[in-house]
Amino acid sequence: MPPKQNQSNQTQGGASDQRNTTSAAGGDSAGPETGQQAGSSGSDSNPPSKLKKLWGRLPFSGSKKWFLNPYIWAFLVVLALVAGIIGYVQSNNQSANIDGEDFPAASIDEEDFASLSEEQAEIDNTNKSLNVQANSVFDGTMLVRSSLEVQGQLRVGQKLALKDIAASGQATLNNVDVGQDLNVGGDTRLNTATVQGGLSVNEDLTVAGGGTFAGTLNAQAIETGSLSFSGDLTMNGKLITGGAQTGASPGGSIGSGGTVSVSGNGTAGTVNVNTGGAPSRGTLVNVQFGSNYPNTPRVNVTPVGSDTGSLDWYVTRTASGFTIGSDSAPAGGTNYTFDYFIAR
Description:
With 344 residues, the protein is of the alpha+beta class.
């Protein structure tokens, strides 16, 4: 029985030598490796692993000049392109956007937070600064005990609640709702302002444009260059006129030594005529306005007293003044008084 085993082993060894000889005849450097694999397969009954089979299928397996294979270089180029695209996408995803888009956040664990709490005395040192170059997001409330200086723009997405506002420079506000008092120490320019409550102005109020009041305008005194009313004018008090003073000169029919005087303005006043000796029919007094009207106004003259009322008087008017005359000779040495009111 032992001689038969030796013969069997010799047969297997001969077959292995024959395979090695055949591989060597092929002129490939893989012959010795193939021979070793065959020898091991002869001594080991386990089949080759899947990794070895995959390696054997690659185009550069078993060749020392694999770097000359174009398929290998094409495969490496594809891998490089894929790696570049992945890196570019990750870099864009990490870019921060302060308008509210997501950006990478640096988290602080409990140990770091405890360390910051312990080192609070060092952080609060005025000789040191905490510089944060990255974007920061605070989900909770942030308390600033001292001044907050913003060198760039301050953008607030919701309502901004401030106890006091002190603006040393120019402030541009689109819409402002003031729930309580608004105190302005200096000049204030408003393009459009809507006041639903009371508006108190302690100093002068200068309005370059128009003003519209839907309700009642209460003012102790109003000074204006011109005032126009589209509706009725109701005055609960007296109408007191002002303006340039008028002048008066005697007419040719006042008589020898006669005098005239006037007190009033271009709106209302009183004219006194003192006839002299031998007055005659004609003009008694000439009244000149302090400033001319654009055209001839309406002059309303009222005689005062019975002597003036019995006089046969008349009025002529122009844009610069008016005259009072008599169609009959008045009495000499008599005082005649007239009140006038002018409207246009």
